Amino acid sequence: MAPCDIIIRNGTILTMDGNNSVVEDGQLSITGDTIVRVGPRDNEASDSKMTIDAEGGLILPGLINGHTHAAMSLFRGLADDLPLMEWWNHYIFPVEQRMDAAFVYSGTLLACAEMILSGATTFCDMYLFEDQVAEAAAKAGMRCLAGEVLYDFTSPNYGDLESGFAYTESLMRKWEGHPLISIAVEPHSLFTCSPDLLVRANEMALAYHRPLIIHVAESLSEISQIQERYGKTPVGHLDSLGLLGPHLIADHAVHLNTRDMDQIADHGVRVIHNPESNMKLASGIAPVPDLLARGVTVGLGTDGCASNNNLDLFTEMDMAAKLHKARAMDPTVMDAVTVLRMATIEGARALGLQDAIGSIETGKKADIIIVDTNRPHLTPMYNPFSHLVYAARGDDVSHAVINGRLVMANRKLLTLDLDAVMQQAREKSMAVRKWVSNG
């Protein structure tokens, strides 16, 4: 066997390729940042630098968190049990106006620690001070698609909107060619962004060949506002502005009529489903089975910790599957394979990263996790796909490799000092308490 950097062996490989191929007693080899071999275990001696024994567990692609606001980990539990608009306008937006770069960096490190420990290797972020988000992700060794939120009012980071577009361009220049970090254009939503802002953001995304990411049709309140202002649904409004296209990633997409869904499918728009956040804020249930039936690419996201309280994609998968079964009164809806693909290869496709990540195939980047199945709640195991969606938890992940680098081994983070990250988060939370108490 040719020498390589890392060999992972003695586990069942769920490749999540086009055939959902499974390799029993499998082995994969990594050289540099790339998977160079996937197949049955080879018992020949190897001079690889590192061999990881999966100990009979499951080896699968790292999970992909398609939509979150990482630094909001510092707002976990801050304003629970409130309607979406009250949550935004009276709690979240006011405290965000007092944040600074150090706050966002600390919150993102905390989020990265939580995500790696629960099996996520990639996340897509929309927030403020996104250069600090990118810096934190790079330090943690996570793959990240980041974008500075743009809206009509003044930002605590960049100030006026003109500076916001300049900031986005500066992010593109700084992180160009980075192995882990890429940049998107991210206007916040249709009710916080004027038509002129949306059109300009779209032009920038197209000119720089970047994704355009927007919250779309998340709540009934948004539907009412857009209908009142423009006489259209949110998707209809986007269509009238020329924003629909395969470069557009629509976060949430909860309240869609038949025409909306047809337009999304016809234009190749990609969607990120955030079931737990939508449930907690009582925003509604996105028509994901209907979108999938139309051939729409749908990924899975947690949203931020202020509207979900955790970043665990295993619980998100479990919730996504069960929520839609209950709504449809059909236990066959959103089967385990479909949902696991949403968190892996379809999530990669939703972010435009399918050629690099999302499945375990030769030539792809080595973003790999191992799930320890030697646990009571995972014993016995008849169907590994079902186990991952309905039985596994984030803390069952034992190892994580991102871009060919081992970032977690035997539940120990190797890129971050977890105690220091949590202590810093506790210190930042004291400032949040003061902001809330002082109004």
Please name the defining characteristics of this protein:
alpha/beta, 5-stranded parallel sheet, 15 helices, 18 strands
Walk me through the structure.
- With 439 residues, this protein is an alpha/beta fold.
- 38% of the residues lie in helices and 22% in strands.
- It has helices spanning 84-96, 101-117, 130-140, 161-175, 195-208, 220-230, 234-240, 258-266, 275-280, 288-293, 313-328, 336-342, 345-350, 384-390, 418-437; strands at 6-14, 22-31, 34-40, 50-53, 58-61, 63-68, 120-127, 143-150, 181-183, 186-187, 212-216, 248-252, 270-273, 298-300, 368-371, 397-402, 405-409, 412-413.
- The strands form three sheets. Strands 1, 2, 3, 4, 5, 15, 16, 17 and 18 form a nine-stranded mixed sheet that branches. Strands 6, 7, 8, 9 and 10 form a five-stranded parallel sheet that branches. A four-stranded parallel sheet has the order 11-12-13-14.
- Strand 7, helix 3 (130-140) and strand 8 (143-150) form a beta-alpha-beta unit.
- Helix 2 runs parallel beside helix 3 and helix 11 crosses helix 12 (336-342).
- The longest helix is centred in the last third of the chain and has 20 residues, at 418-437.
- The radius of gyration is 21 Å and the shape is globular.
Q: Can you lay out the helices and strands and say which pair or pack?
A:
Blueprint: E1 6-14, E2 22-31, E3 34-40, E4 50-53, E5 58-61, E6 63-68, H1 84-96, H2 101-117, E7 120-127, H3 130-140, E8 143-150, H4 161-175, E9 181-183, E10 186-187, H5 195-208, E11 212-216, H6 220-230, H7 234-240, E12 248-252, H8 258-266, E13 270-273, H9 275-280, H10 288-293, E14 298-300, H11 313-328, H12 336-342, H13 345-350, E15 368-371, H14 384-390, E16 397-402, E17 405-409, E18 412-413, H15 418-437
Parallel strand pairs: 1-4, 1-5, 6-7, 7-8, 8-9, 8-10, 11-12, 12-13, 13-14
Antiparallel strand pairs: 1-2, 2-3, 5-15, 15-16, 16-17, 17-18
Helix pairs in contact: 2-3, 2-15, 11-12, 12-14
